[in-house]
Amino acid sequence: MKFLSVSESDFLYEMAVNGACVVEHAVDPGLCERMKEDAHWYYRQMRPVQIAAGLEEISQWSAHHTCGRHDGIHAFLDSAVIEPYISAYFGNKPFILNTIGTAINPPIAETGRYEHGHKWHRDIRTYNGNDARQLLIALVLLDPFTIDNGATEVLFGTHHHADFPPANFIERFKRTMTAPRGSVLFMDGDVWHRAGQNHSNAFRIGLSCVFTRPYRKQQMDYPRYLPESYASSLSPGMRQLFGFNARMPASIDEWYQLSENRFYKSDQG
């Protein structure tokens, strides 16, 4: 197992107080380079679909549900290198992948912009508070994140409050999360954040992995979405991650099953 630069106890403390934590050098640079190539491949595949759906501007420079191939992203997920942090965040109980996608932060000189990412936002629409730990974001830095190239900005502590903070709070508590390539920025789903403006002359790419407890509905039904040839090759750990142990039956025949054959397994919470 790769040595990780932040202890689980320090990770949990930073997440509780700040709503964010950076673990540096968690992913090998070579794998980051492979995943950058994957990001461009998925974007090329999905761009015509985005345009046909009338989402040309709002979806520009992003690709969603970037999985289903034996590529660099698969290798990263299968390595489970950040699993100790995810498991600790969810109280050492099962979790699944809610969604996964890539974000390409373009130089400001480029035509178009990463529309959604440049606005302050939370990744959860319904605020529960009380340290609910509904959702954990793991943003894998496929490039170095710097002030110049628009590193992610986080409003520390805002996961404790339902409302968006006033302007004077933003100026005082905004943190620019700079870190080397291969680092992972973890964020509580309730913390406000955004991508910074990229003033460099190169694209800055991140892989966003979102994890939840199994009983929360996935943004994509991955057990149905993934190609059968890919799904049948998955390890038990990857099947858990993609939600194969937390499926919903779609017929009475699927509902009435012996416990070992049930779509939603009894250990999923």
Automatic annotation (TrEMBL):
Cofactor(s) named in the record: Fe(2+)
Species this chain originates from: Noviherbaspirillum humi
Protein name listed in UniProt: Ectoine hydroxylase-related dioxygenase, phytanoyl-CoA dioxygenase (PhyH) family
A single GO molecular function term of this UniProt record: 2-oxoglutarate-dependent dioxygenase activity
Secretion signal, residue range per the UniProt entry: none
InterPro entries xref list: Phytyl_CoA_dOase-like (IPR008775)
Pfam families reported for this sequence: PhyH
Regions annotated as coiled coil: none
